[in-house]
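Hi all, long-time lurker, first post. I run a small reading group and we've been trying to get comfortable going from sequence to structure in the token notation. Rather than ask abstract questions, I figured I'd post a concrete chain and ask someone more experienced to write out its structure so we can walk through it together at our next meeting. Sequence below, copied exactly:
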Amino acid sequence: MPDTNFYLTDHSRELLFDFIQSQGGELVPNLHYSKPEYEIVKDVNQFMEYIETKTVRFYIISKKFQERDLWVNENELMAPPNYYIVQRVGGPYIDLALYRGWADDAAVKMKSTYVGHYARFLDKDDYSIEYKASEELKDFYKGMLKFLRSLCKKVNINGKNYYIDKNSDGY
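-- Answer (accepted) --
Happy to help. Here is the structure in token form:
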């Protein structure tokens, strides 16, 4: 799966949300749902609240590249009925994770933001059928990377390059 980490301030995360929406993208939080339907994040305030209190992971969908609905399945081991989005099924989609903190031994002491996508997605009725990620998804993903890099500076720490927010302190 192509993926990249960025180290962003909360303000830049808000800018990322606005960018995704401006490109026709929608964010679906990775939550447990009480019914077999997923939510779409409505605005930047809700987005930031989700990150701080509910989930750090989101699925980015768009009419530009989504060919199938995300597959929402019941977790039969939990009561009351509980539903979740099955990874790699339906879509395609872009993964977005916005972590809340960092490890004590982290090279970059900032919240990391991960973006990536699978090369193939599965059919909800037959997991042996795979669909390649579309060119439209790849173009959307590349546009996100370009936008994120525009917010960052490339910093070399101990021989490894990191994309760190231009407005961060200490880097």
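A couple of things your group might point at:
Helices lie at 10-22, 44-53, 135-151.
Residues 3-165 form one domain.
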